[in-house]
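Translate sequence into C-alpha cells.
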Amino acid sequence: MPKVKSEKKFRNHKQTASSTTGAAAQQGLRFNKDFGQHILKNPLIVTSMIEKAALQPTDTVLEIGPGTGNMTIKLLEKVKKVIACEVDPRMVAELQKRVQGTPFQNKLEIRVGDVLKNDLPFFDVCVANMPYQISSPFVFKILMHRPFFKCAILMFQREFALRLTAKPGDKLYCRLSLNTQLLARVDHIMKVGKNNFRPPPKVESSVVRIEPKNPPPPINYQEWDGLTRIAFNRKNKTLGSEFKSSNVLNLLEKNYKIHCSLNNKPIPDSFDMKTKVEEILTKNNFQEKRARMMDIDDFLQLLHDFNSEGIHFS
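Result follows.
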C-alpha cells in the first residue's frame, strides 16, 4: 500500500487542523456509497470511542476509512502516530489539507489503497468507523495479524456487532460469533443512531471492543474451520443430521484415506465412515446437539474426538 507524505509547504496565514472541519461539506464533496462512506459527525461519539481505547502517548494507532478526518484529528492529539488507510483519493486530499501546516503533519501517515489487499502495518490500537461492507474480512485480518495489538474499537452495523458478541442460544449466534470469540474477547460498548452520520446510513450502528487472546488457542485453524462450516451449515439441525449428508461423509472418507496412507495405517475392508461418525458423535453425546447451542469448549471437544480417530476436516 503506497504511503502519501503530507506536503511540507506552509501557508502564509495561520491554520489549524480544526479550522477545516466541515470543509468537505462546504465544498460539496460527494460521499461514495460504493466505499461505504458515512462520515461520523457527532464529536461526542468520536470522543467516547477514543476514551474506550485507553490510548497512551507512545501508541501507534491504525484507522481505517478516516474520511475527512474528524476521528483522525482527535487521535493525533493523543498518540505518537496515526496510520490512516483510505481507498478514496478525494478523502486523502481532504485529510492532507486538514493537517497541512499543523503540528500533526509529521505524526500522520496516509496509506492509499484497499486495506484488505495489503499487509497491515505495526500498530498498538485500531480505532475506526468501519466501511460496513468489509466488516467480516477485516475482523479476521486483524485477528490474524502479528505482532499482537492491544485492542480495537470499531464501529459496525448494529446487526453485525450483535453477531460478533452473540452467545450460544441467541438468535444471532452463528459461525462468525464462534470464530471471533475463539480468537478474542469481544464486548458491545455503545449503540449509535443513524443520525450521527453524514449521510445517514439505512441501518443503526454499534461500537465493539475487540481484544485478541494472547497466546491464541493451540489448534489447527483449517481443521476448526472445516468442522464449524459443517456444523453451522444448518445451525438448527442436530449434528447427527448434519453429518449424515453424503457430501460430508465423502469428504471425511477422502481425508481419512489420506491420513491412513500418510501414516501407513491399513483400512479394514469392513470400514464404514457413516458408522464411524455416528460412534464419535455418540461418544460425548453430540448426536442430538445443535450448533446454535454449542460453545467453544463443545467444538474443541468435538474436534478432538474426530481428530483422535484419524478423521480430519482439511
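Note: The mean pLDDT is 90.
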